[in-house]
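Subject: TetR/AcrR family transcriptional regulator structure
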Amino acid sequence: MTDAPRTARGTRTRARLLEAAEQVFAECGYSEASIVRITEAAGVAQGTFYLYFSSKLEIFEELVEDLNRRVRHAMTEAAAGATTRIESERAGFRGFFEFTAQHPALYRIVREAEFVSPSALRLHYTRIVDGYIDGLSTARDNGEVGDINPGIVAWILMGIGEMVGMRWVLWGSDVADDGAAGAENDPTASGTSRVPDEVFEQMMRFIQRGLGAPAPGTPPEHAQKTGKDRT
């Protein structure tokens, strides 16, 4: 990887290249994307690209890492004021869905990584899971959830968020009530919507039951006893 920029201007240029890469990779896919297209979208000379990245693969891998860093930050920031694990899950999922609505390219780019850079794909998911494991382990030890395996549950929760986000945020109204995609639907990086309240609440009820978490408003001493009773 090339050295980090040494000036504020260089930092801004590098960020502009990453923003342009997000747009180009989402619209064209990795194979059709090019350094020329990225530099044109960023409004910089092609030679400038090589001051910050050595290749198309390097900027792609850096983009996956950048999106991962930003989505984790969005989830952490959203859940900062939560006082229980279920509140943290609720706020974190809200943060994730909002980020997805603002950055629908996340889906296509992460899926492209499966073929372009499997190591980047694995790093993306494991970094999210690692944070989940820490939080779930603490919640289990505090009796906020039942006798769960944090490593397994972390992957389950991430799968729920990804699929719900794809169906209701990314596809939005282009999917019929029976789940069939509309003729004009583009599941890779199309227009965005939001998760309806009914869907979000049902998802959270499902997660709450799966975690063995007490209902909101349960007194702390009863919540801790209930959690331990499920072990």
